[in-house]
Write a structure and sequence with these properties.
Chain lengths: 113, 112
């Protein structure tokens, strides 16, 4: 079991560029979650999918951020026109249907210059 | 405002000592979870304690929950260098575990 795989581990973008972050959940897990972690705000919920369907995106900034899960083996988080305040570690997690235990990946550290 | 928060930002202990991290929360909950995050890794769940439980153990870890004071503690006995990490408590007001609110975390240093 390789765990949740996130790529890339580090990404540096210039202000205004687009960033796409990838997540491969644990095989057999039905739920996928995205969280953002910063020093100031801590760990914040962004969005989650269940059986590939978007369920709750209440934590997503309404502009520029979007998440998709085109198949059961991967999810993407896309940030358009990145801003310095988007710099953070973006964490993906997956779980079985009950979601009692989230299994986090190691995250993607996004730096926007 | 944080729905869950740890009471201390940082702790330092010597290897072999015991340590307790405390957490308070602000809403009615069905369960509280403790997570540990080591440097360069994502958080990993340690213990899930339900609102009808007062104590739960996992090896050297012991969590308590006091719903009347809306507080929880995580104790680690016989600490090891590898216990060095940030410890978070997390709650979900909806009771479905789908949208966790994490505290700011307590940074524990066991080895220099």
């Amino acid at each position: 079991n390789a765990g949740v795989i996130q790529t890339p581990r580090h990404k540096v973008t210039g202000k205004g560029q687009e960033a796409t972050l990838w997540c491969e959940p644990i095989s057999g897990h039905s739920a996928v979650f995205w969280y953002r972690q910063t020093i100031v705000q801590g760990l914040e919920f962004l969005t989650y999918f269940r059986n590939q369907a978007p369920i709750d995106d209440s934590g997503m900034p309404k502009e520029r951020f979007s998440a998709q899960m085109p198949n059961q083996s991967h999810s993407t988080l896309k940030i358009q026109s990145t801003q310095p305040q988007d710099s953070a570690v973006y964490l993906c997690a997956s779980s079985l249907d009950s979601a009692e235990t989230l299994y986090f990946g190691s995250g993607t550290r996004l730096t926007v210059l | 405002s944080q729905l869950a928060e740890e009471n201390l930002w940082a702790l330092s202990v010597h290897e072999g000592e015991s340590v307790t991290v405390n957490c308070s929360y602000k809403t009615s909950i069905t369960a509280l979870q403790w997570y540990r995050q080591k440097s360069g890794e994502g958080p990993a769940q340690l213990i899930l304690i339900r609102s009808n439980e007062r104590e739960k153990r996992n090896g050297r870890l012991r969590a308590t929950l006091d719903t009347s004071s809306q507080s929880s503690s995580l104790s680690i006995t016989a600490t090891r260098c590898e216990d060095t990490a940030v410890y978070f408590c997390a709650t979900d007001a909806s009771g479905s575990f789908n949208k966790l609110t994490f505290g700011a975390g307590t940074r524990l240093a066991v080895c220099p």
